[in-house]
Amino acid sequence: MATSAATIDSRLTAPGVAARGGAWVALAAGVLAAGLFNSDTAAYAITAAIYVLIGLSLNVILGYIGQMSLGHQGLMGSGALFAAYLSTAHGLPFAVDLVVAGVAGGVVAVLVGVVALRVRGLYLALVTLVVGITLQTSLFEVPSLTGGGAGEPANRPTLLLSNDRFYLVCVAVVIGALYLDTRLTGSKAGRAFLAIKEDERVAAAFGINVVGYKLLAFVLSGILAGVAGGLYAFSSEQFNGNNFSFLLALTFVLMTVVGGAGSRAGVVAGSVLFAVLQTFLANFFLFKDFTQLFPTNLSNNLLQFGPNLVAALLLLITLAVNPRGMAQQIEPVVAWMRGGPYRGADRSHAIREGISGRP
Amino acid sequence: MAVLETQELSISFGGLQALRDFSIQVNEWEIVGLIGPNGAGKTTAFNCITGFYKPDRGQVMHRGRDVTSLAPHQRVAVGFGRTFQNVGMVKTATALENLRTAQHIHAEYSAVAGILGSPESATTDRGLTERGEQLLDFLGLSAIRDTPVGSLPYGQMKLLELGCALATDPDILLLDEPSSGMGPEEAADLGRRLLTLRDEVGLTMLLIEHHVPLVTEVCDYVYVLNFGSLLTEGEPAAIQRHPAVIEAYLGSRHGRADS
Prior knowledge:
- By secondary structure, chain A is mainly α.
- Chain A has helices at 14-36, 39-64, 72-89, 94-116, 122-137, 143-146, 163-186, 188-198, 200-205, 210-236, 246-259, 264-287, 296-321, 327-337, 347-353; strands spanning 152-153, 238-239.
- Chain A has one domain (32-353).
- Chain A has a two-stranded antiparallel ribbon with strand order 1-2.
- The longest helix of chain A is centred in the middle third of the chain and has 27 residues, at 210-236.
- The model of chain A is unreliable at 1-7 and 347-359 (pLDDT under 50).
- In chain B, the strands form 2 sheets. Chain B has a 6-stranded mixed beta sheet with strand order 7-8-9-4-10-11, with helices on both faces. In chain B, strands 1, 2, 3, 5 and 6 form a 5-stranded antiparallel beta sheet that branches.
- In chain B, helix 7 (184-201) packs parallel to helix 8 (212-218) and helix 10 packs across helix 11 (252-258).
- Classes of the chains: A mainly alpha, B alpha/beta.
């Protein structure tokens, strides 16, 4: 993904340019159409955009420096909490709330990062898990910040009251995040991250400050998660600590892995898929009224666990036959859209790298 | 003044004294060899010099400055470039990307400026690409510019790793078995390259090496390490005939039988 748009092959034929242009237009139209026709689908689309931000955030840690975080709901929740609190208790404007949400996520991530620098692997996963759960049961329960059991309201500004307008704001933030992510992987920070992920000794021998760059990865990830949390608070127009359970963190990790950790396009696709699973599919089961087809407790279970069941199946498929996740299928298409030739899913790459999900 | 000087470096792991009173000196424009049987502590000495291990005692001096307390990446900035025994590179990245990564300290823009996409960072990165291509050209590796490093033959990997160490723009180059995995011809070629680097670029080098013809061809001075202590030192030709060295490598009985 290090190649930039500037490397587009000048030998492209006119139909080639037209086809790629058409694909981009179709993609843009699809993104806009998802949010602009129907207020209900717009709500799903907003969730999808927020999930994409979280996916990109987690990708920095999981995909770029190869560490683990099971506490991203805590980072996201911190952003949501401060956005809601500042907007309701202090009447600060929407844009300021979002910035503070990002800062809050970044600060919490630094605190996690300082610990994280001393441990790795399983222990790091445990540390982040504990931080996430601790945040949920302590900070997110402080009544003066969170408005007690009812939750802290987070009212949207009048201009963004309609879902379709709010969706456009979310899309704008996602585009901004994608731009920064592209710059990240194309600049020295991205190269440093990859070196650290593969071998910290090599990174140090290349003159890279391993500790500093790990901390930077956590901060960047925290800022993104915080902003996503801020958007989430405004999208549901309230902050409620109960919404940030461990299950959410698990979903975030799943969508990043199924999408393809390390691949921007893959993670975006995985995040959208899981957002749809969590919202649309859940409602689809409801709409079909399974109560009439199955015994009551079975259908209730299906409602509750249906999306998770699909998620688990997707994870198994990823581990068994698709080690680089959805990215394995999507990357060739993205490469084509960026002006390169189409080369089908290149599995030899995965084999050469020795990547396998199999234990 | 010596480019690199170690004073009584000592380190032990548990009960094993891996290095004892290790004092060497590498002068400007010298290629110094560090030889010794397997397990003698050569790589441990390298790791102490480059900051990957913290010695229990002793100092590492660079041109008279004590660098013992500096972290590995800080020593790269001071001018210590190193390679590893088992190829230290980013294996999934291409040859050129590795050379760009290795120029990290010469990418003179802040990480945040790079992420925000400052025009200055783009210009700097173009410079890194050019320098990377020059290094590929110098090493005769231009053909593998866009090949992922992990899929290269071992000899080419070692050569490219030397390129990565050069990309850090070192004052002294520390090479851990640069000729391992190379055939005799490739090793001779490497020797010529090292001499070129010394004579034309003015580099100073310390190398761990097992390939005897290479040591005698390029080294100005040799230190012999055995069981963590320096056994002897001197010109390569004299070292080759030194009875203690023969004994260390081949065992005492063999040494007696030969003499």
